[in-house]
Design brief:
By secondary structure, the protein is mostly helical. It is built from eleven helices and no strands. The chain has one domain: Hypothetical protein af1432 (Orthogonal Bundle), CATH 1.10.3210.
């Protein structure tokens, strides 16, 4: 299946983190749900078409692929990161964009791969211009990256990590809504409020304990690229929107 290829690429990086569970599967479900809801807005009806839905379903799991380039002592640190470690962690957005650019080569015309590159680079930008790596503001940030930013934040808040406990759906809603216009695009937040119940259902459905992923040595962007390049010949262009 065409959607399994980008998910498999993203899993190569996620395997290093042992407590993320079904994070990538949830992210693409959340992004699909948000995108479908936003398409009801006449402003986005011509932008969020079947091609956009195909691409974001495939590309959204690639948002953190750049974490393959982050050292274990930073990525897997159980406590808070210090200022130096945060600077290292923030480089994952640039690394991810570079990996996907190199992986794509002449295939960057594939909409999901180009969207994945943009998402990887921009999903930590903030609506008010205080994000990273480029301090983009408002609609300077790609729409897909603005959607992924909220989906990723919801999952981070409601999931257990090595450095934090999981919080409730209600707490996640409160935090996201309070960050409308600062961290998040107000229209993305408004769409989230209308489909928050679907987010909760997805979260609860995938919250069962998952077995730890198998050990996988992916310690460098070079190693990841070898695996990505071995997958690329099997990629086919999407023919229809992902199943709802």
């Amino acid at each position: 299946m065409q959607y399994n290829v980008p998910l498999a690429i993203a899993k190569l990086a996620e395997f290093r983190e042992q407590d993320t569970g079904k994070h990538l599967e949830r992210i693409r479900a959340y992004c699909w749900t948000l995108s479908v809801e936003m398409a009801r807005n006449p402003r986005y009806a011509q932008v969020i078409d079947s091609n956009f839905l195909d691409a974001i379903y495939a590309a959204s799991p690639l948002h953190d692929v750049g974490k393959v380039g982050i050292p274990d002592d930073v990525l897997l640190k159980p406590g808070a990161l210090n200022a130096t470690e945060w600077e290292i962690m923030r480089t994952h957005s640039r690394i991810g964009a570079e990996i996907l650019t190199l992986a794509g080569g002449g295939a960057m015309t594939r909409s999901w791969l180009e969207m994945g590159r943009v998402i990887a680079h921009q999903h930590h930008e903030r609506w008010d211009g205080t994000g990273y790596p480029s301090r983009l503001k408002g609609e300077e940030i790609d729409l897909a990256a603005r959607i992924v930013a909220l989906a990723d934040a919801y999952d981070a808040i409601t999931s257990k990590r090595c450095y934090k406990a999981a919080m409730s759906h209600e707490e996640a809603c409160s935090r996201l809504i309070s960050s409308s216009g600062t961290h998040f695009d107000p229209e993305v937040v408004a769409a989230f409020q209308r489909v928050a119940g679907a987010f909760q259902e997805t979260m609860q459905h995938t919250r069962e304990e998952q077995p730890a992923p198998p050990p996988l040595e992916v310690r460098s962007a070079t190693g990841l690229l070898r695996r990505i390049n071995s997958m690329l010949p099997t990629i086919v262009a999407p023919e229809q929107a992902a199943p709802r």
